[in-house]
Design brief:
- The structure is a single chain.
- By secondary structure, this protein is an alpha+beta fold.
- It is about 30% helix and about 25% strand.
- A 5-stranded mixed sheet has the order 1-5-4-3-2.
């Protein structure tokens, strides 16, 4: 759930590892640390995108509306 907080890309880039995994998707910042082991596509794909803007990759996969709805609980803010 969003806190209304704004993050810089540098802040996102600092969270690029297994213990703190953030990604940007369509200008929203998500903390996927707790989700990485549950990701249907495997945790490696999330780790590859950690600390980056994963918008294009996310859209290319064609995630379902269920997946998009599930994302909301991991949203921590917006890209500044």
């Amino acid at each position: 759930m969003s806190t209304g907080k704004k993050f810089t890309m540098d802040e996102v880039k600092a969270n690029y590892h297994k213990k703190s995994l953030w990604v940007v998707i369509n200008k929203s910042v998500y903390d996927l640390t707790k989700f990485q082991n549950e990701h249907p596509g495997g945790e490696d794909i999330l780790r590859d995108m950690a600390g980056k803007d994963a918008s294009e990759e996310f859209e290319d996969i064609g995630h379902s509306s269920t997946a998009r709805n599930q994302m909301t609980k991991y949203k921590i803010g917006e890209l500044a």
